[in-house]
Design goal:
Layout (H helix, E strand, L loop, with lengths): L7 E5 L9 E5 L4 H4 L18 E5 L8 E8 L5 E4 L2 H9 L13 H4 L91 E12 L6 E13 L5 E9 L19 E7 L4 E6 L4 E5 L2 E11 L2 E6 L13 E3 L3 E5 L4 E12 L2 E12 L4 E7 L10 E9 L5 E6 L5 E5 L11 E10 L2
Parallel strand pairs: 2-3, 8-9
Antiparallel strand pairs: 1-2, 3-4, 4-5, 6-7, 7-8, 9-10, 10-11, 11-12, 12-13, 14-16, 15-18, 16-17, 17-22, 18-21, 19-20, 19-22, 20-21
C-alpha cells in the first residue's frame, strides 16, 4: 500500500499562522508502513507541517486506529511520522487547571503537571455501586508446576529503571514506581483498597522483597521480606504481618510459617536471620520469641490481668512479673563415697533475667559411705563468670548446726559443708537450705 492524498483531510485549523493542525487520514496500512520514511509523499503540497497531528482511521476496519505526529519533512517535501501520543498529552496537560493547593513534595505529580499519559474523568458521589475510572481485568486459565513470581499472571505491571543501572557511576536521584495521592472531604479514603479470596491455595494482600545487591555478581548483600494479610487454605492458618530479614532467599514465593515453632496462626512476626531471633504475635495475643534456625527453642510472653508471664516451649513459667515457684527434684550425692537413700524436694523462683532463688529440703535416710561435701543438683547450670560462696545458708534440723553452700563456675550442683568444712549430715537427719545463683 502507499500514501493516498485523496484520503487526507484537514479537521482543525489553528487561529493564526502557527500552531498544531489536526488531519484525518483513512488507510488500511499497518503501523510499520505508516511509520515508514517519507510515507507521506509530497507532504508540503498537502499542507502538512512538522508537529501536525494525523488521526489514522481504517477504511474497512481491518487495522487499529493510530495517532501520528509529523516528525520530519525532507528536502523533497516528503513527511515521516512517528507514533507519539504522549507529545499531545503533554501539550494538553500543561494548560490543565491545578486543583491541588496543598504543598507537598509530590503535588506536581498529583496534578499531572508533567505526565506522559493522562487519563482524567469524574465520578458522581451519588452512585450506589462501585465505579472505576480505569478497570483492568485478567482471566488466567493456565497453571504452573510451582508457585512463584516467575510463573505468575500480572494484571498490572510497572517498572522503573535508573539509566546506567547497575553501574555505581549512574546519576543520583530518586525513582519511585508507584505514587498514590488522594485529597478527601467528608468521607472515607484509602490509598490502597484490596479484597482477595482463594480456594485451596495461599494468598497475601501484599508480598515483597527488597535487596541491596553486588553490582557485579548481583548477589544479595542485604534483604528484607514482608507479607501482609496472609491466609493459607491448604494447610490452615493466617497472619497479619510478617517481616523477615534474610539474605539471598525469596526468589519464589516465601512462607513465613516455615520457621514457626508450632503452627503459624499469628498477627505479627518479625524475623532477623542474622541475629537469629524471631518475634511473633499469636492469635491469642501472646508474643513468641524464638531462634530463626531453631524454632523449637522458644518462649511465649503474654499479659493477663495486668501480669506478664513468660513460659518456655513446654509451658513452664520462666519469668513472670509476679514470681511463681517451680518444683524440681534435686539429686543428692556426696563428694566422696555413696549415699544409699535420700528424699529431696526442691523449688526455684526466677527473680530476674538469669537470677534464681532456690530452696531445698532433704532427708538423708541412709548416708551409706557419703563423706566430704553433700551435693544437690541445681535446676540449671550456673554461670561461668566466677565462684559463688556463702550465697547459700541452711541448718541441720536435727542438730541445729548451720550449713553453708557453695557453687563453682559452670557448676551443676551446690556443695554443702559445715563451717569447719566437715560433712554436714548423718543418716536420718534433715537439712534445709536456700540461696540465689546466676544461671548460664
Amino acid at each position: 500500500m502507499a500514501f493516498n492524498p485523496d484520503r487526507l483531510s484537514l479537521v482543525v485549523q489553528p487561529i493564526g499562522e502557527n500552531g498544531m493542525r489536526w488531519f484525518d487520514y483513512q488507510s488500511d496500512d499497518n503501523g510499520d508502513v505508516l511509520l515508514g520514511t517519507d510515507y507521506f509523499q509530497n507532504a508540503k503540497d498537502h499542507g502538512l507541517r512538522i508537529y501536525d497531528l494525523i488521526f489514522v482511521s481504517p477504511e474497512a476496519g481491518a487495522v487499529e486506529p493510530y495517532v501520528l505526529v509529523v516528525d520530519s519533512i525532507s528536502d523533497s517535501g516528503h513527511a515521516t511520522a512517528v507514533e507519539k501520543l504522549e507529545n499531545l498529552e503533554r501539550e494538553i496537560i500543561k494548560t490543565a487547571v491545578q486543583y491541588d493547593k496543598q504543598a507537598a513534595y509530590y503535588a506536581a505529580t498529583a496534578n499531572n503537571a508533567d505526565a506522559a499519559i493522562k487519563i482524567s474523568g469524574e465520578l458522581t458521589e451519588e452512585h450506589t455501586t462501585a465505579k472505576s475510572l480505569l478497570h483492568l481485568q485478567q482471566v488466567n486459565s493456565g497453571s504452573g508446576a510451582e508457585s512463584g513470581p516467575a510463573r505468575a499472571g500480572y494484571t498490572f505491571s510497572a517498572a522503573a529503571f535508573k539509566a546506567g543501572y547497575p553501574s555505581t557511576a549512574a546519576a543520583d536521584g530518586e525513582i519511585d514506581t508507584t505514587l498514590l495521592t488522594f485529597r478527601q472531604v467528608n468521607g472515607d479514603a484509602a490509598a490502597i483498597l484490596g479484597n482477595g479470596a482463594i480456594i485451596n491455595g495461599f494468598a497475601a494482600f501484599a508480598e515483597a522483597t527488597t535487596q541491596s545487591v553486588d553490582p557485579v555478581s548481583f548477589a544479595a548483600k542485604h534483604q528484607m521480606q514482608i507479607q501482609i494479610g496472609v491466609v493459607n487454605d491448604r494447610d490452615g492458618g493466617e497472619y497479619g504481618y510478617n517481616a523477615a530479614k534474610t539474605v539471598g532467599e525469596g526468589g519464589t514465593a516465601f512462607y513465613g510459617f516455615s520457621n514457626a515453632p508450632a503452627g503459624w496462626d499469628y498477627g505479627l512476626r518479625l524475623a532477623h536471620k542474622g541475629k537469629n531471633q524471631v518475634l511473633q504475635r499469636t492469635s491469642d495475643a501472646a508474643l513468641i520469641l524464638f531462634e530463626f534456625d531453631n524454632p523449637a527453642n522458644y518462649v511465649t510472653m503474654k499479659v493477663a490481668s495486668g501480669v506478664l508471664t513468660i513460659a518456655d516451649s513446654g509451658g513452664a513459667i520462666v519469668s513472670p512479673a509476679s514470681p511463681v515457684p517451680v518444683n524440681y527434684t534435686p539429686t543428692a550425692t556426696a563428694s566422696s563415697g555413696t549415699i544409699t537413700t535420700s528424699s529431696v524436694l526442691g523449688r526455684w523462683t526466677q527473680l530476674a533475667d538469669k537470677m534464681r532463688f532456690v530452696s531445698i529440703v532433704a532427708t538423708i535416710t541412709n548416708n551409706g559411705t557419703g563423706a566430704g561435701a553433700l551435693r544437690f543438683t541445681l535446676p540449671a547450670t550456673a554461670s561461668g563468670s566466677g565462684v559463688f560462696t556463702a550465697h547459700w545458708l541452711g541448718r541441720n534440723l536435727n542438730t541445729g548446726v548451720p550449713v553453708f553452700g557453695q557453687i563453682v563456675a559452670n557448676g551443676t550442683y551446690v556443695s554443702i559443708v559445715l563451717a569447719n568444712n566437715a560433712y554436714p549430715v548423718a543418716s536420718g537427719e534433715t537439712i534445709y537450705l536456700s540461696g540465689t545463683y546466676e544461671t548460664a
